[in-house]
Structure formats: C-alpha cells, structure tokens
Amino acid sequence: MKNLRQVKSTHNIQGGENVNLADVIMNGRKVSFEKRLSYFEQFLGRLSGNQQPLYFRSILSAADREVQILTHDGRPKKMLMFGSNNYLGLANHPYVREKVKEAIDKYGVGIGGPPILNGYSKLMFELEERLSHLKDNESTLIFSSGYNANVGMVTGLCTPNDIIISDEYSHASFCDGVKMLRGNHYTFRHNQIQELEQLLKIHHTQVKGNIFVGVEGIYSMEGDLAPLDKIVPLCRAYKAILLLDDAHATGVIGSKGGGAHDHFNLSPDTDIILGTFSKTFAVNGGFISASEPVIRYLRFMARSYMFSASLPPVTLAAVLAGLDVLEKEPQLRQQLQDNVQYVVGKLRKFGLVSEPDAAIVSLKIPKGKDIRKLAHEFHDAGIFLNAIEYPAVPKDRERFRISIMANHTKNDLNQLVRTVEEIWHKASKIDDYENCNIC
Questions:
Q1: Tally of domains in the chain
Q2: Structural domain range at position 67
Q3: Fewest 10 Å CB contacts: which of 46, 243, 245, 284?
Q4: What is the rounded distance in angstroms from the CA atom of residue 172 to the CA atom of residue 186?
C-alpha cells in the first residue's frame, strides 16, 4: 500500500489545460505589478523568437469545414478547419440558423438579467427539460459558460470538510473551483484506476464530509475516454459522488449522443454530469444535470450561476435546434466516427499521442523538431490546427491537436494527411515512416 505522500500528486505541468502561466513566468518570485508586467513581456519575446505563435488568428467567415482567415499581411486566406470543436458542423447548419433567426424575431437578442430574477425564459425551461432527457437525469440548470459551470459545481456542492479526488488531467476550470474552495484535493495519474481506488480506501473512513471524484468523459488533450465502467462502480462502493465533465463527449458518443454514461450504458444514479455548449453545439454556455434536489440546491449555492446574466435567447435557441439535429440526423455522429477512424488509420504511423475515442486526434511532433516552425508550415499549406506548446504541456509532449468534424469531406481528410506527410518528410528527411523513430 502506498502511503499518502506517495499517492498525492505533485504534478504542476500536466498533459492537459491546467497550467498556471503566471507560476511558470514568475517561478516563485514575489515582485511588484510593474515587474510582473515586465517579466511577462520578456516571456512573450522569448516565446515569439523569430516566428510569432499562431494565436488569435482572425476568422472572417462562418465557422465550417472551410474558413477564411485574415493573414498577417491583411489578406484573406482559405483554410481547412481542423482546430474547432464544432464536431457535428452545427455552427453553420441551415436548420440551426433558421431556428436562431426565428428566436431573434420572437425574443430579441438578449434578456439582461440572471435566472433568479428576470433571466429565466421559456426557452431556458425547455432546454433544461431537453438536456435532462439527453443525460437521463432528473433536472438541469444552465450556466453562462462551461467554466462557470465547473467552478459553480465544485464551490456550490463541496465544502472544506470534503475530499476531492480527481484525474491529473482535469480541466483548468475544475481545478480553479478546487482552488477557490481551498479544500482537500488529491489527484491520481491519468486514468490510473488503481491509484484512484487507493485514495478512496485511504480516505473513505476518515473524511468528515463526503468524497467527490472528478473525471472527464473525453479528455481534451489526448482525446481518450475515461474508463467510466470501472470508475462508477468504485464510486458506488466507497459512497463517493462522481463529478463528470462530459464536455467533449456530449453529442459525440453514446447510442443517442448522450455522452459517457450513454456510451457505457450506465445509469447516472447519484452522479453529477456537466456539459458545455461550446463543443458539439458550437456556441457558448454550460450546464449541470443531476437529481432534482441537487439542482435545486445548486440554483442557490452556485455563485457563478446566481450572479451571472442568463444566456441570450439566440444561444438557447441554437442549442435547442442542435438537439433537434442530434435526434433527426443521427447519421452525423456516424459520419464523425467514420471520419475519425479514417484519419487515425492514415496518421497512426506518424505518431499519435494516444488512440482517440472521440473527435480529437493528438499528433506527436518529430523528435527534436520546432513545433512553432511546423505550425507555420501547416498554416502556409492552408491547414488550420492547434499547436499545443510548452508550458501547456511538458516540452517533450508538445503535439498538434486535430479536431475532426462530421462534415469534413474525404478530400478534406486526404489533404490533411498529405500535408502531414509532406511536413514530416521535410522535417525528418525519411521516407520509411513505418520504421522511423518518431512512430
């Protein structure tokens, strides 16, 4: 049996999005505000080097499989979009656009208040009912962002007497909620169920309050699935409450697109499920689905819900329309999975970080190569994807994160593969990829 010190994680830079850039830059130094600004400017200078990072690229068109980007010299450039979480292509779906236009005509563009006062609209009530059905749960409440939903879930439900155990790759919004709570928090190595069980064994007889276990349905950096079929029974056995961030799984996996529980054919029971509208539904907002008592409690205890303005009617209408498409066009989910499998089959020999379970393909870079230079080559070739650089991940785990959409054509996917092959060949000077040292 490992002791507590060995089990408790001390990772700072992980393979996820939970890096604190200020900690990296300051490196423990306590200086004035002016000095902090100066250190940050120096950091940006070192980061840029001879080539600017490809952040904040301006998109000039509707979000779709092909977009127009404003280049550094002010000209529009057509690019194939492989960097968006618009997995089912709903951002520019004609049915969604039509329903949003109808909502504008009927409700206007905003509502101007929080749900508890004047911000609880008919559309919000309808959407909560639909999401509860999607998640096979009793009730749902809607937040103005996925970040607010995660922070509200942790700070609204947990107390400093509770213990929170989470996967080390948990999203920054979850970890920020834990920091705000200032509670007892332990992490286990990514998807290492034995470590999770050890922590549950250690704490379930000692905790003064409750144990909460935080995992994600699909992890955003690796694209891999949490083994929920093993985690849920563990939580039941140790009377722990599962907090599932299902952001990247909702609408993508499961028999009806219900997410991780749907995929594993599990009942949510006492589990608390979080989702966002910024992935499959391609807008903004977040939600939590759980039992009726839990949702009633959160409506008053989650400060990020109580003190945030409601989502505008146009956003609610877009998600409702997206749910319609999810039900009426199940072939979109199948097309997405077919596209993912096709790309994975073609790119596996170039070096995947892990085998993806959903729509995120994480591609290793050739050993010793400059990811910034490679990113610019993709950009110049008309392929928009996301370069995940240090300090978001350790230097030896930098990668390209490729997001696949249902409406990508076979030609789009082949163009992506051809571009990877050309760039990798140029970078590595090798032809036999099956036997190369980057595979």
A1: 3
A2: 58-81+331-435
A3: 46
A4: 15
